[in-house]
Amino acid sequence: MLKLAWHLQTEPGDPITDTTMRTLFTKPAAPVTSDAVIFNYQQPARARLVALGTGKKLWLVETFDPLHKVWVWQQETSDMEQAVDDARRLSLFPGVRVA
Question: Is the whole-model pTM more than 0.90?
């Protein structure tokens, strides 16, 4: 009978532990939303501030897809006023694309 073995070590000589395995196969932390502005005129649209794992923050502009029940990314910016204005425009005029 043939035995197969594999090694997964962080440093030579370090024991393989459950913690080592969990750290290797865990997803990175999800972005955290701190502020959001939602418009609900012709189509639901929102601008939300997300903190990325790198310490950087971005405003995401998204519209709601009622068929699939998900928020769809439209644009990202570091400018809050631009993001809120674009979300308002997308909500008022669903067919218009934002720059």
Answer: no
